[in-house]
Write a structure and sequence with these properties.
With 435 residues, the protein is of the alpha/beta class. The chain is 39% helix and 15% strand.
Length: 435
């Protein structure tokens, strides 16, 4: 029997959700508001609400729970660290081991890591590092990108409401990201158009001031969008030609999510700076900036306390990240991501061939997307209300996924099994058939 198909009550879940809504501020994630779930526990790739209904989790806290829920090694490591020491910036065994492990996994000469507690904080730190090193000011990002909601990065996050909380800081520019699902020409033409637009922005808008070009190897919030082959190397070349640093935002794509350790590995590109987070600590608030010996030595970034964070790299956070990354490596979860991801992609493509409601199936590893459409020829996106209905159909059949907008995003725990992926595909197929 598939998760969630049991005819159970949701009275307790709904009651607790409503009780919280009376006091919690608005603005929660859409998936939490639409599902109205109150979760009691999680195991592996499943979540169980307080009424006892179990769901397959294809969300993983938005690409966060790499090891799934309550992984025994993760629970044991954090329990042990809780009983020892949890806070402070002093050297600890977990942090010393963690920075050594990250240096071994990171591409090229990226071997120096500074830790923070959230994604936006790390991206802001990366921008400060780039400005320290280049002695320039401007930063170029991409349409469709998302790097956080704090003032220092909001200008680079493609969200509709950001102008309403302005003024936004100057010196930020957006170049078009090449989305092959929305481009009428060939993949090479898509890359060339985006490359030419990037060069125009470097020359005309940044005008000799570019400190960094910031890019997601795969855009997550935009719909798990994979750029055409060759685009990331061209962005790297453009950065080198104008004297800017290339910052790869690997918050979502890092540590096995895409079937390789890092997203930039797919294009054999080594950025100057990488930002990491989300899945690196399997749910514990932890992020980081990785760069080279030379770049991190730049002042004022390298001055004492200039790049530190009160919570970044504390012993408990370091223990969470260390056990997560060690488990990803030792349990071959990068390969599992690639293998089960291929199974899911194949299954979704078969559903798309059978039914006319999904199109543009795409993905790498367990970072997968597809579009809900009105017909397969025009690929016109499905209206919002129909997408919400699809989300609730999936939920009723025991599947949690970011499927309430036309650009569906799938990013389950890296421990997802082939059997669980097959179950998820069956639920998606059933929900699509009822649209």
């Amino acid at each position: 029997m598939l998760p969630g198909t049991q005819a159970w009550s949701r009275a307790q879940t709904k009651a607790l959700f409503d009780e919280e809504q009376a006091f919690i501020a608005p603005g929660l994630q859409t998936i939490a508001l639409l599902s109205e779930l109150a979760i009691e526990r999680g195991r592996g790739a499943t979540l169980t609400d307080i009424d006892g209904r179990t769901f397959l989790d294809l969300n993983a806290g938005v690409s966060v729970a790499s090891l799934g829920h309550a992984h025994p090694r993760y629970v044991a490591a954090l329990t042990q660290q809780l009983q020892a020491v949890t806070v402070g910036s002093f050297t600890s065994r977990p942090r010393a081991e963690l920075v050594r492990l990250i240096a071994a996994l990171a591409p090229g000469n990226l071997r120096r890591t500074q830790f923070f507690s959230g994604g936006a904080e790390a991206v802001e730190a990366a921008i400060r590092l780039a400005r320290s090193y280049t002695r320039r000011t401007d930063v170029i990002g991409f349409t469709g990108g998302f790097h956080g909601k704090t003032a220092g990065v909001l200008a680079l996050s493609d969200v509709a409401w950001k102008a309403a909380v302005g003024p936004l800081p100057p010196g930020y520019h957006l170049a078009p990201y090449p989305d092959p699902t929305r481009f009428a020409g060939t993949a090479s033409e898509c890359v060339e158009n985006a490359r030419a637009a990037l060069r125009r922005i470097i020359e005309e808008d940044a005008q000799g001031r570019p400190a960094a070009i910031l890019i997601e190897p795969i855009q997550g919030t935009a719909g798990n969008i994979i750029p055409p082959p060759g685009f990331l190397p061209r962005v790297r070349d453009a950065a080198r030609e104008c004297g800017a640093l290339l910052i790869a935002d690997e918050m979502i794509t890092g540590f096995g999510r895409t079937g390789k350790v890092f997203g930039c590995n797919h294009d054999d590109v080594t950025p100057d700076v990488m930002t990491i987070g989300k899945g690196m600590a399997s749910g514990f608030p932890m992020s980081g900036v990785i760069s080279t010996d030379e770049i991190v030595a730049a002042e004022p970034f390298s001055l004492p306390s200039a790049s530190s964070s009160s919570y970044g790299g504390n012993p408990l956070a370091a223990a969470a990240a260390l056990v997560t990354i060690e488990t990803i490596v030792e349990e071959d979860l990068v390969e599992n991501s690639a293998r089960v991801g291929r199974l899911m992609l194949d299954g979704l493509e078969k559903i798309a061939a059978r039914r006319g409601t999904i199109a543009n199936v795409r993905g790498r590893g367990l970072l997968i997307g597809f579009d809900l459409v009105t017909d397969p020829e025009t690929k016109r996106l499905l209206p919002k209300d129909a997408c919400v209905r699809f989300f609730k159909e999936c939920l009723a059949d025991g599947l949690i996924a970011m499927s309430y907008s036309p650009r569906v995003r799938i990013h389950p725990p890296l421990v997802l099994t082939a059997d669980e992926a097959t179950q998820a595909l069956a639920i998606i197929d059933g929900a699509v058939s009822r649209l």
